[in-house]
Amino acid sequence: MNHFVSTNGELFCEQVSVAEIARDVETPFYLYSKATLTRHFQAFDSAFAGIDHLTCFAVKACSNIAILNLFSGLGSGADIVSGGELYRALTAGVDPQRIIYSGVGKTEQELHYALEAGILLFNVESSQELERLQQVAAAKGVKAPVSFRVNPDVDPQTHAYISTGLAKNKFGIPIDEALELYERAMGMENIEVKGVSCHIGSQLTLISPFIESLRKVKIFVERLTAKGITIDFIDLGGGVGITYDTEQPPHPRDYAEAIKQELQGFKATLILEPGRVIVGNAAILVTEVQYTKSNRGTEQVKKFVVVDAAMNDLTRPSLYGAYHAIVPVLEKGAECEVVDIVGPICETGDFLAKDRELPRVEQGDLLAVMSAGAYGFSMSSNYNSRPRVAEVLVDGSHYEIIRRRETFESLVQGETIPGGVRHGH
Ligand SMILES: *Cc1c(COP(=O)(O)O)cnc(C)c1O
């Protein structure tokens, strides 16, 4: 359930007309609903009521500090994967003791920064990372709190690019090798062993892979306990899917129930790292039709709707062939036709939808690309020297720009011409 609803043929975000915002901020822009963000966070977090847990929103899904600040106010921590995300989380006011740091490639500077900030946990993904963390912590004279990310070798049955818990993926430490690493870490002066973590993938529509990996983790924790290694935190990662098209992902309530069932008798604090399930359906990308055209081939006529948003603004269709529903902001009762909805970028891969039924649109019409809140703006780039779009947050009958549209000046910020001389005619 979200707060993007059409009333009398006009799309609203909460109580504000989307077309009205478009007139004010111009297109394209991402539009977030505060009520939806809040509702989704609370639905997820409250599903785990009754067991000791910490929900750490996965910053990479949606990184705007206004949104991180909103979640922080609702009790969320942050799951970060870079120094930049740590900076964002701290700037947004997230308590460092609710921040956990995941990722296979943490640099020395990043480890240093996170130790300085005093985060809750490092999810270590290799023995070399452990050695480096020990060195950096020793140089600072502190102890680094550590979980190891184990790779349970479970198939999440999702898109290959977003499967992370298979032995062939780059993530985590094979569960059979992890025991030795825990024992080594126990002997390290500046390492404090605290937990076990795993994350098997994204956009999962089944509960069973989560349970399968949790069972493997449980057996592993029992082996650790037998060796006298205490585990305070069990981190199950993120990955619950959402409905983009016809998917039927589990409700967070059922996901939580299944996990709570499995964890009976375990004393550790449960950590969760949801991203997509919280923000995915809480935003849309609003774009304006620039041109319509048809290319007549020998066998068929192909119709294109060229809009002002592109693969640099929303990468998922090009990157994963992902489906996003696309609807007119103002319904005019036009009949449907089958079109490709494409952007202005000079790549054939630049599309938002292919062979899609859409009511006939014309130049100047607004379209809403639905379910764009997760891995939307946060994956956007400046490709084709396109300034990144504005982000707008609606709260009831008000809206606010939470990130200004970039300007041409911001495109070249930090660039210099050697010698400072501008050659020209
Ligand atoms: C991406 C990621 C998440 C969030 O995944 P969602 O599918 O958005 O819930 C959580 N944890 C880790 C380690 C990740 O890499």
Describe the structure in your own words:
With 425 residues, this protein is α/β, with parallel strands linked by helices. The chain has two domains: 4-31 and 281-411, Lyase, Ornithine Decarboxylase, Chain A, domain 1 (Beta Barrel), CATH 2.40.37.10; 33-277, Alanine racemase (TIM Barrel, Alpha-Beta Barrel). It has helices spanning 18-25, 34-47, 65-73, 83-91, 108-117, 127-140, 175-186, 208-226, 252-262, 276-279, 316-320, 408-412, and strands spanning 4-7, 10-13, 16-17, 29-33, 53-58, 77-80, 99-101, 121-124, 144-151, 173-174, 191-197, 233-235, 269-272, 283-296, 301-307, 326-328, 336-342, 351-359, 366-369, 390-395, 398-403. Strands 4, 14, 15, 16, 17, 18, 19, 20 and 21 form a nine-stranded mixed beta sheet that branches. It has an eight-stranded parallel beta barrel with strand order 5-6-7-8-9-11-12-13, surrounded by four helices. The radius of gyration is 23 Å and the shape is globular. The structure holds pyridoxal-5'-phosphate (PLP). Pyridoxal-5'-phosphate is lined by residues 58, 60-61, 79, 102, 199, 202, 237-239, 273-277, 374.
